[in-house]
Amino acid sequence: MILKLTDEPGAIATAARIARGDQSPLEAVDAAISRIERFDPQVNAVVVRDFDRARAAARALDGQRPRADQPLLGVPMTIKEAFDIEGLPTTWGLEEYSGLIARRDSAVVRRLKAAGAVFVGKTNVPPLLSDWQADNPIYGRTHNPHAVDHTPGGSSGGSAAALALGMVSAEYGSDIGGSIRVPSHFSGTWGHKTTWGLVSSEGHEFPGSDGHDIALGVVGPMARDPDDLALLLNLTADRPLISRPRPVGAWRVLYLGDHPVCPVDSAVAGPVEAAVTAVEAAGAMVERSSDLTPDLALQYGEYMRMLMIAMSKGAPGPEGQQASAADWFALMDAQARCQRSWRALFERYDFVLAPPAPVVAHPYDLTPMAERTLTINGQQVPYGAALAWAGMVTYPGLPSTVLPVGSSAGKPVGMQVIGPAFADLDCIAAAKAIRNLLD
After folding, report:
1. Which of 102, 204, 226, 247 would suit a FRET pair with 254, their CA atoms being 20 to 30 Å apart?
2. Which of the following is catalytic: 130, 169, 179, 201?
């Protein structure tokens, strides 16, 4: 069973209501604010609220007919707290930046506002965006709508929780270690990790910095509907994207259900394997192993080294070690080799299907991450090993769409649809086709 918490319409459907005159932009914004005020006390997802300015922006749109470049006219949204919105705090959950107010909108916010979206607030994150839990000393803890003592995922955890409860119909997150994909999987929503470099991360930088795009990190859309994902992506991408949809029966698919670094719990494996079986039954060629699969254990080690350097900007580690330029260039060489391996794989396959994470949503655990474990099929596995499933896609810079495929014991289960670089729209279309098989 695929869990659902709300019947609220998506972004495209809301925009259509407004375009028909069935609802004004102000009415749409007021309805979103009402839902936030009703549901958020239980989950604490929308932690920065901008209701007065949102209502003013909506009033300015009332009575307007949407232009061709305004497909989101009047649609209320929230966005991950790490994105700058002029006049609002951007703290990344760090107390030392609690007074930092953004001076301008991020690139994604500018593009979505130009398309007519109205931002009513920002959603919760863990400190430094570096956990699959959404809890920080400034805003507190966000609860999973399906199990309130559990995490909704991270770092875009508030984003997924707000979507799952229908507070808003569209969101935008970021992903370097599964931070879009894991919340979507844990919360029963849709999310798309973009090809690295496809969407500008300007205005999504470490607080107080004026930096470049983060190595490995991407920003991407989140929604309850795959068509909304595609629209948000087209509105924010730095380059035109072409989709070449093919019927499921014509697909060549590799299913990766095992990873040498981290096993998958049966609670996740069952629904994912059932979805893969449905794809196979629809006529797709599905293989469960391939001589073209990159060395995933090697890739995980290289990914983790690059991730730690990128997140710390090369600062000394706990034992005083510090990355040199030579270390970084060696990792870039290794990453290029990894990317070539994946390109060769995608000459044979259209998509790779895989779990987004090895477990379903778990209870909050504030043990330091280096000491934290996950229970997988009754065994204790280091928490960091779970990043193998996210890093498999992050390190080579590939696109991946997560869709809900089922549930286990009342908790959602998602699946990744991974494609070659810049096949982002194809990943979204394939995820939609798979969901249609399951509905």
Report:
1. 226
2. 179
